[in-house]
Design brief:
Strand 5 and strand 6 form a beta hairpin. A six-stranded antiparallel β-sheet has the order 1-12-3-8-9-10, with no helix packed on it. A six-stranded antiparallel β-sheet has the order 2-11-4-5-6-7, with no helix packed on it. The chain has two domains: 187 residues, Jelly Rolls (Sandwich); 170 residues, no CATH class. The chain is 7% helix and 39% strand. The radius of gyration is 25 Å and the shape is elongated. It has 387 residues and is mainly beta.
Length: 387
Amino acid sequence: MAHLGPLSESERRWKALREAERPRRLELHRTCEIPDYDTGKIVCFKSDRIMNLDPPPSKMKKSLFTKRTNPLAIDVDHTDIGLYNSVDELILLISIRRQEGVLAFNSRASRNLHHGWGPEETVKIAEYRGEISRSDRILVYDLGEKFQVIFGLTTVYYFAKRFKDGTPKKASYKSTVADENPINFLLSRDIFISVFNLSDLPAYEKEIIERQWKSSIAAIQWHDEIRLYYQVHPNAHLDQNSDVVRELRKASPAAPWAHGATIERAAKNSSIAAVVWIEDGMHIRVYYRDPGLHLREHCQDTATLSGTSVFSHANSLSEHGSDPSRSPISAEVVHERMGYVRISPSWKDAESKIVNVIREISSRISILRDDIQVTSGNSLGMMDGSG
């Protein structure tokens, strides 16, 4: 039966709540208000089809962004999703550039004597293509001081907020594709925007999104070069007990960060330790745990006469002291005479007290290989690290 009288206060609140929860259509080259939003919520941009990561022919692209730091080339291909705060500051720009093969992130002040753009941050699409090519949505999760950008269920970036007001109020959607054929667009011509909490997701999806930003970090430096090691879960369809450790490289203070090695078979939330020394070339050792809680070693040797070699033999930690799954790993290098070094990996309890120290070993290659030399005490039992 139709409602003939005015709505009561409770009915008005209920109607407003239902309207806020309803996905809103965000048309191409338009802006849209974001429904009721608080820190900790997720903004979802949903396409009618999965992403097309193949750039269209050059003639189908045109420049629509006239206020960038640099003018776009004629054949550039951009799809931009922007989030604005209450004073029209662009607090997050997600720019998918298929022609360049990058995902770019930036912000822009609403009032500035110059262009207003901040420093651009980028990652390569190739690092995530296998996962995001099956996605039909982009999620932006507000973590308070930063945004977690998620394509499908794959976290591709964390963008630190640059403005005091970091609450999204409006969203925009733009593309340089001029052709009307929908197949050439990255997403559908119109997308749908909705807002929800992490708790609204199924337990499986919630766990995947949450676990991607809980990582141990290890860093090493020599001369002007820096290597950073951190843990991610790049594919929601992988073994849920196994993450990967990734390497970021910075060759000099002015050089951009670049992706390096990807190390497989790391236990979820594993501690990470890394050491480096120079002796007839660069030697790097990275220590972490595999899903069976065995210590593993990733080796990179760039000596003049040898290439880069990787070994993953394992020592068992589960028979010694406290729970190894909660124990931070550490390592140090001690230089000896005759060009040899001692590498001393150890793991610690929750109070950072050393529970067990793996015996110091002298070797110019992997300390976990079968042909190592033990310099003091007895070595731990070796385990086959294959597989």
